[in-house]
Design goal:
heterodimer; A: 353 residues; alpha/beta; Rossmann fold; B: 252 residues; 10 helices; 7 strands; 38% helix; 15% strand; globular
């Protein structure tokens, strides 16, 4: 059996990144993700890697852009207000089709908001944030183990599809400690013939660029990119189903909210309510098929999230509004108790949603 | 017959989009000549700005990246830290470098990031059609200072070279001009030195090139070059503002 180590969620991300071959980290301090930077600052110099604290989130994401274009595995991490600042760079990285890993350990917003856990950046992560037509692969860990495994997977997917993978975590998972193992660490390497390496006077120059002044060229570029996104949507959705076999009601939750929801599902089962849970692990691509299949068999859905209701829009969209969807949420750093979620499940059973 | 003059290898054989009389073509050529003469065309990576030189990635034959507005020094940092064996330069205008990208510029200089920056100062936003720049002169008429730049309203133009020279970090900060042959030759020397410094691992080297924008200044190319001499250079004097190695050698 693989050796287990006790780690903080944020540190698990950092260690997993190093194990995935990432040797370049550019960041800027912000609570509650600073342990990632601290871990990198300590480790990188000892393994021949680069840790650099940038002057701003904007600078750090543009350093990531440069390093990604130069063909190395590179990452940055931040929390909600910092991700807003990085969004310009995320758009450029998407428009230039280079791979990067970006971590958002979410805190409450909008504005400076607070420093307590939140899931209120769902729209920003899955619908854009930066300008233009683009997508990011959004991975939502629900445990410290997943902080590690999804970070490794994130690098792989980014390289495979030439896009940004975002780890959309939250302050709770970032800060909590759990035993994890790195047993399944598999690292793939990808050829990067497009990378800026210098021509060595052997080939035509490579250009990494998001500018296309001719409208038809820009349109063609966007269409080509969306063809790639369609493959991601087909191949890469990940989700977990819990007690869904005979479920009449379905709770949908991701990240830390899914752990509260799981407790509530167990409690509701003890009361005889046939309820299950679908936990999206990829928020983009959203596990549409799982939701649509559930819509054909359950009576209603309860969406549990730490926001005023963001993922619920996708739940309604991808269940094609076939069944009612109710929202059970807290925000601003508050977390619903299992009892609150249980009450929402009871209401669903009574048809009160 | 001996070839005495030819296009630099590092400059692509394509028509440039710049306006008639624009010195960008001269400055591109100086950069390409320096790269050729140092024999680094195979390992140079260039960073293009947002501004008139936005399409510089089509004009240099070295590997190129197009950065976000003002972020070229950060993007160059990411490249250089990933590939320290490569030679990395940015080519930026005054709006890009001294307005929106001031933080990236100052901090790259403070880190003594081992990159080369070619900073073209023509005192105006050219690409967007002639708005006031951080380097527009007091009283200068632009689209967004139609009554002349009022320093009481929108402040004073920034002397980038003087400012950066106050930092401990950078290796080499110099200002040159391209308004006459003598100055062009001096500019060439400075640009080559800025690349040579990087090859030798000396660190951050910035060459501010005082340039002209006949189109947006509303002048003929000749008038514009005259205006560089009569108005720009008195405010932005040429000279070496910092040269750590030379200063150290002078001390020894």
């Amino acid at each position: 059996m693989a050796q287990k180590v006790l780690m903080k969620g944020n540190e698990a991300i950092a260690e997993a990144a190093i194990r995935a071959g990432c040797r370049h980290y550019f960041g800027y301090p912000i609570t509650p993700q600073t342990e990632i930077a601290a871990y990198m600052a300590k480790k990188m110099p000892k393994i021949g890697g680069v840790f650099l604290q940038a002057e701003s989130e904007i600078a750090s994401i543009n350093m990531v852009y440069g390093a990604a274009a130069a063909g190395v595995r590179v990452m940055t991490s931040s929390s909600s207000p910092g991700i807003s600042l990085k969004s310009e760079g995320l758009s450029y990285i998407a428009g230039s089709d280079v791979p990067a890993l970006v971590v958002n350990v979410q805190r409450g917003g909008p504005g400076l908001g607070g420093i307590q856990p939140s899931q209120s950046d769902y729209f920003q992560a899955t619908k854009g944030g930066g300008h233009g037509d683009y997508r990011m692969i959004v991975l939502a860990p629900a445990s410290v183990q997943e902080m590690a495994s999804l970070t490794m997977k994130g690098f792989d997917l980014a390289d495979k599809y030439l896009m940004t993978s975002m780890i959309l975590a939250d302050g709770t998972i970032g800060q909590m400690m759990e035993p994890i193992s790195f047993e399944d660490a598999e690292v793939n390497t990808y050829e990067k013939p497009w990378a800026l390496t210098g021509t060595n006077c052997q080939r035509k120059h490579n250009v990494v660029n998001s500018l296309y002044l001719k409208a038809d060229e820009l349109e063609a570029k966007n269409i080509e990119r969306y063809e790639r996104y369609a493959i991601v949507e087909e191949n890469e959705p990940m989700w977990e189903e819990y007690m869904m076999e005979d479920a009449e009601y379905c709770v949908v939750a991701y990240g830390i909210a899914s752990r509260v929801a799981k407790n509530a599902v167990v409690a509701a089962r003890a009361e005889g309510i046939k309820v299950g849970l679908i936990r999206p692990i990829t928020l983009w691509p959203f596990p549409k098929k799982a939701l649509l299949a559930a819509a054909d068999k359950v009576k209603s859905f309860v969406c549990v999230e730490l926001s005023m209701g963001q993922m619920i829009e996708d739940v309604r969209l991808y269940t094609e509004c076939k069944k009612p969807v109710s929202l059970c949420s807290r925000c601003g750093g508050m977390i619903p108790s299992p009892e609150e979620v249980l009450e929402a499940i009871r209401k669903a059973q009574k048809g009160e949603n | 017959m001996a070839v005495v003059f030819q296009k630099p290898k590092s400059l692509a054989d394509v028509p440039l989009h710049y306006c008639p009389g624009c010195p960008h073509g001269i400055i591109h050529r100086l950069v390409a000549e320096a790269i050729d003469e140092l024999g680094i065309e195979g390992k140079t990576i260039g960073v293009a700005p947002v501004g008139c030189a936005v399409m510089a990635y089509d004009y240099f034959t070295v590997d190129m990246i197009e950065a976000a507005h003002g972020r070229a020094p950060a993007t160059a940092t990411g490249i250089k830290r990933s590939r320290p064996e490569n030679i990395v330069f940015t080519y930026q205008g005054d709006g890009d470098l001294a307005s929106i990208g001031m933080a990236e510029t100052v901090h790259a200089a403070a880190r003594n990031e081992n990159i080369t920056i070619i900073f073209v100062n023509n005192a105006i936003y050219g690409m967007t059609g002639g708005q006031m720049a951080p380097t527009s002169l007091p009283g200068q008429v632009t689209q967004t200072s139609p009554y002349g730049r009022d320093v009481n309203h929108c402040g004073w133009p920034i002397k980038v070279s003087e400012m950066l020279a106050t930092l401990e970090g950078p290796e080499y900060i110099t200002r040159v001009a391209v308004n006459n042959v003598k100055n062009v030759l001096a500019a060439k020397k400075a640009i080559k030195k800025a690349f040579q410094n990087q090859i030798e691992g000396k660190g951050f080297s910035l060459v501010e090139v005082v340039s002209a924008c006949p189109t947006n200044w509303g002048m003929t190319p000749q008038q514009a070059l005259k205006w560089v001499e009569t108005d720009m250079l008195p405010y932005y004097p040429t000279g070496v503002y910092k040269d750590r190695t030379a200063a150290k050698e002078a001390q020894e």
